[in-house]
């Protein structure tokens, strides 16, 4: 039986639901000077989720439970962190492929390193066709790290979007070096880009301050703590985007699911603007 996953929306002061045009800052009307765009048919539902190699807080490895949560949210793009590929500790299952099979989404896996007879890394799932992908090597920290980049194409309009999953780790100096390298990889990008994952960094940290110079961060509102899932005390999982004038945030929420993983999933619904 599928679990009943509760959605928690972010609300502005006064009780108005925070919608996209006001995403990056506090709630309020769009500035009259903001660029106006023709609305397109492209909406994009994005999920960022550290799944803890599908081992829940009940110490049960359950890929089907994670897949059920993903299906319940009906995302177009999913950035997954802490993914095992045929490791002994999780029963030699290719978790990215299995999650793709269970959800009906295309999948790619990006390995950080060999681990326990297999590999450990990240995955991207996509409803949109994947045009190409790269596993971008970042400076090693306490463990090796990469950024997993996929270029996807809208089946409705042909719009291309770059979707990048990350999992920075571990010390602040290591995470900052990883963020600097990621910016160097992506600085020449001209297509709309979404960056999502576990940053292991809080608002106001050197890492987030660096990224906010060139990225807009989706504001979660009052309910913003993503770790841990059963006792949230830190905001370390984010969805970022650029350029700001190519996206409107239609909705966002954190999912209250305290058992499937040690992180809360972050969901954002975008409209792609022209």
Brief digest:
This protein is of the alpha+beta class. It is built from four helices and 13 strands. The model is unreliable at 1-39 (pLDDT under 50).
Structure notes:
The protein has one domain (41-273): Endonuclease/exonuclease/phosphatase (Deoxyribonuclease I, Chain A, 4-Layer Sandwich). It is α+β, with helices and mostly antiparallel strands and 274 residues long. Strand 4 and strand 5 (118-126) form a beta hairpin. It contains 4 helices and 13 strands. Residues 1-39 have low confidence and may be disordered. The strands form 2 sheets. A 7-stranded mixed β-sheet has the order 1-12-13-2-3-5-4. Strands 6-7-8-9-11-10 form a 6-stranded mixed β-sheet. Helix 1 (63-73) packs across helix 2 (95-103). The protein is globular, with a radius of gyration of 18 Å.
What is this structure's SSE topology?
Blueprint: E1 6-9, E2 39-50, H1 63-73, E3 77-85, H2 95-103, E4 106-115, E5 118-126, E6 130-138, E7 145-153, E8 160-167, H3 172-186, E9 193-198, H4 206-211, E10 216-217, E11 237-242, E12 247-256, E13 266-273
Parallel strand pairs: 2-3, 8-9
Antiparallel strand pairs: 1-12, 2-13, 3-5, 4-5, 6-7, 7-8, 9-11, 10-11, 12-13
């Amino acid at each position: 039986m599928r679990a009943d996953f509760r959605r928690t929306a972010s609300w502005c002061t006064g009780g108005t639901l925070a919608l996209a045009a006001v995403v990056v800052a506090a709630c309020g009307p769009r500035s009259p000077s903001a660029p106006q765009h023709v609305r397109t048919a492209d909406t994009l539902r994005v999920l960022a989720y550290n799944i803890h190699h599908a081992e829940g807080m009940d110490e049960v490895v359950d890929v089907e439970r994670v897949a059920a949560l993903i299906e319940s949210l009906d995302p177009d793009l999913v950035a997954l962190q802490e993914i095992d590929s045929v490791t002994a500790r999780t029963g030699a299952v290719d978790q990215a492929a299995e999650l793709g099979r269970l959800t009906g989404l295309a999948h790619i896996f990006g390995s950080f390193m060999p681990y326990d007879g297999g590999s450990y890394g990240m995955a991207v799932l996509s409803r949109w066709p994947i045009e190409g992908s790269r596993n971008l090597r970042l400076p090693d920290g306490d463990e090796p790290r990469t950024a997993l980049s996929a270029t996807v194409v809208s089946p409705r309009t042909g719009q291309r979007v770059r979707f990048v999953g990350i999992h920075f780790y571990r010390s602040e100096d290591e995470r900052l070096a990883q963020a600097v390298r990621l910016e160097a990889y992506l600085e020449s990008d001209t297509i709309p880009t979404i960056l999502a994952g576990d940053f292991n960094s809080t608002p106001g940290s050197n890492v987030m301050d660096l990224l906010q110079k060139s990225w807009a961060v989706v504001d979660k509102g009052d309910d913003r703590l993503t770790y841990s899932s059963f006792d949230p005390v830190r905001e370390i999982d984010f969805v970022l985007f650029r350029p700001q004038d190519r996206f409107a945030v239609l909705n966002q929420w954190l999912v209250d699911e305290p058992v499937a993983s040690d992180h809360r999933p972050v969901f954002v619904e975008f409209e792609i603007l022209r």
